Amino acid sequence: MTRKRQQMRFWLRGQLSALVNVQRVTFPQASLAADPIREADLIVQTWSGVVIHLHLIDEPLKMPRVKRLLDQSTGSGVVNLFMLDAELLPRPGEKVHEDRWYVPFAFLTNDWLYSYHLEGEQPVIRTLSFVPYARHELEARAAGPIAIQNLRHYRSTSRHHHLKGYWLLADFETERSAQSPHHRPPQGEWFPPPGQQKSTPPTSPLNGFAAALDDSYRLLGVTRAASYEEVKAAFRRLVFQVHPDVSALPRPVAEERFRALNEAYERIKDLNSWS
User: Is the pTM of this model over 0.70?
Assistant: First the structure.
């Protein structure tokens, strides 16, 4: 593993751990699989129970390998986020053939891809997109750097012929991505753990409330069948961990998580008429 990739791993772990919707960020343990497709560089667990695998790509990858990874992960309810070493990518304004190995990655995340590099010793993330220039030729266009302020996950359909499919993906939501409705997740969408089927709720004005209620139960780590004592015990355990006066998290992050837990607890109590 290169020094740059190792430095990015530690930096990203700190950045992601500070996000409100992130519960923990860990490095993967060595896989026992005989032929793993590719180990993630970081494993992100959100408060709603979603698992996100972040991959730092520092060598060219063949698309069948990437598609197998997406197939396996999506089938298991695991979300993926890819970031590519900027040294492997064209410079802004450079013209490239549409069949270059990195182009399909831009079709996974709002028509751009994430690149990473070091400016001095400071990690930097930028976005790179490809726009048509001539027949079978694209022009690279860069933006950024971006600040990691949110981590979102969604289902998205890739139309690129090498990675065509319906995948679970993640991105660092920016103003631009927030304005891409075809990539925004439906209100309350969630992804089931391995082996559990996701049900599609019927269209109803109550769906928004039901989704918020489901999020509240997941945030507390209990099911709808939980008793008042079970819900209260889960709430007390979690708020003690994130209380701004005792948590090791930055105070604004701890306050936000504390507020979210309180709102979830009150919503569940209101539904069940628990005083």
Answer: no
